[in-house]
Specification:
Elements: E1 3-5, H1 14-23, E2 27-35, H2 37-46, H3 50-62, E3 70-73, E4 78-82, E5 86-93, E6 98-103, H4 110-125, E7 140-146, E8 168-172, E9 175-177, E10 180-190, H5 196-217
Parallel strand pairs: 5-7, 7-8
Antiparallel strand pairs: 1-4, 2-10, 3-4, 5-6, 8-10, 9-10
Helix pairs in contact: 3-5
Length: about 220
């Protein structure tokens, strides 16, 4: 894990950061539907897990901009940008109806990420522990799949003033609408470091990256 310190005097969102970290402390989130028709077809044809394919694309998108890789050092009061961020995913155990967090390192090479993610899932299925290790994994963002439901909206709040800047992303099961497979996706960011544009940009980048992923895999 490496990071660089943001020079707040030169930070392009310094005015907004001050307002939403001091005067009006809050987060901001958007839920929207993502067309995953071709990605589902690809996963079925290739025999890969759609869940991991989407997780890879999501991690690639969130690593593409420094805005999504920001962190905060409470000890020094400094805003930082990580060189990369990795997904914390969750494995559900049917017998206990509980989840186990899984730390999966992001790699830009799809096959490398896919194989490591599969191994992490297998290991997590053998555990029943719910143990988050934020101290040793500060550059991991939350990525949670709500597999039981297609939803219209989802809200996730953190305490006002809690300067947690990494994205929190949820998505539900997809369903057919007018011949297309649509999947609900929700993204939460701290308003000090993100606004409606940066939230919307996540969805626009997901659409673009799904297309790029499918072209590369042809």
């Amino acid at each position: 894990m490496n990071y660089k310190i943001i020079d707040m005097d030169k930070y392009y969102r310094r005015g907004v950061f001050h307002h939403f970290s001091e005067d009006c402390k809050c987060s901001v989130s958007i839920s929207s539907r993502l067309d995953v028709t071709e990605l589902v077809v690809y996963s079925k044809q290739k025999g890969t897990k759609f869940y991991i394919d989407f997780l890879y694309i999501l991690a690639k998108v969130l690593n593409s901009r420094e805005d999504y890789r920001l962190g905060y050092l409470y000890e020094t009061g400094q805003v930082i940008v990580y060189d990369k961020i990795n997904p914390t995913q969750y494995i559900f155990h049917e017998d206990t109806e509980t989840c186990t967090p899984v730390y999966t390192e992001y790699f830009p090479e799809y096959q490398n990420f896919y194989e490591r993610c599969m191994a992490d899932i297998v290991q997590a299925k053998e555990s029943r522990e719910y143990s988050l290790d934020m101290a040793n994994h500060p550059n991991y963002f939350d990525a949670s799949y709500i597999s039981w439901l297609f939803y219209d909206s989802l809200n996730l709040e953190l305490p006002d003033g809690y300067l947690y800047f990494l994205p929190i992303v949820n998505w539900g099961r997809y369903r057919e609408e007018n011949g297309r497979l649509m999947m609900p996706v929700s993204v939460r960011l701290n308003h000090a470091t993100a606004d409606g544009y940066l939230l919307a940009k996540v969805f626009l980048l997901l659409e673009k990256e799904i297309e790029a992923f499918l072209r590369q895999c042809d």
